[in-house]
């Protein structure tokens, strides 16, 4: 019994000596094998590779175009009239955004190179003028105010559908609406033409020079009889419009209001503010005329020619391109002959040169 206990104790001692050795060896083997198993992954695998991002963006764009195409076909089949309005609205937003980006690019270039407005090329100058006009339009302000209350945006869309001329700018008009609305606006400014001619007749006795009195009387008579005046008949009156009583600063309040309506500017402002707006508007047109004369009328497209004529008082929507170019040439010949102090004549030229051109008087 004692011998068996001694043998058991010795075996336990040797066993304790062998077992740790075997355990340490196994740990080393595991450690070595762990170095092989735990090797770092390839650097090509990471969370957001550029290629994967591009593929994802391409996939999203493709899916968006597909969904948008299905939506357009659905509207075209089931709601054709609404689809026409929707298409015009979306194209209008794209054109408006493109115009804003172009205007920002022009202004940035002006700031970088210290260029003034009157030093710009004609097309850039005209683009900025149109953008500034849209920014000053009260239509957008009205829509913004009425869309402030909750759920009022639905009312805005209804009003835009019912009153497109009063609430929308030209970007969101159909081609037919553009023609119709331009005719309506020209009819508004046409109403002020007889009133302006009557104001010119009233100031004739206050002109000191007898020759100028006779020339202005003859010009007013020709226009009232339906005759289109010659360029020299208008330029002969430069002195009348450079000082009292027809200089820009000497015009009467009612005369200024009538001229504002002829330029499609609001007439519901105090006379000093109206006079300032007329001066600014006429100065811009004079600067545009100089840039256009430098460019040449022949470089303009048909749409650019018609737009330029309409801005200067001629209803060009129903006049041929060649006749519009002829009329614009007459305007430039007068405008480029005037000095800054004679801009009142250029302002009145909106009435004098456009009233009877090719039977446009109605």
UniProtKB/TrEMBL annotation:
One of its GO terms (biological process) is toll-like receptor 4 signaling pathway. Residues 188-362 form the Letm1 RBD domain. PROSITE patterns: LETM1_RBD (PS51758). It comes from the Eukaryota. GO terms for cellular component: mitochondrial inner membrane; nucleolus; nucleoplasm. InterPro entries: LETM1-like_RBD, LETM1/MDM38-like. Its main location: mitochondrion. Coiled coil: none annotated. The chain crosses the membrane at residues 141-163. The keyword Transferase does not apply. Keywords: Membrane, Mitochondrion, Mitochondrion inner membrane, Transmembrane, Transmembrane helix. It is a single-pass membrane protein. It is found in: Mitochondrion inner membrane. One of its GO terms (molecular function) is ribosome binding. Pfam families: LETM1_RBD (PF07766). The keyword Mitochondrion applies. This is LETM1 domain containing 1. The lineage of its organism: Eukaryota, Metazoa, Chordata, Craniata, Vertebrata. The gene is LETMD1.
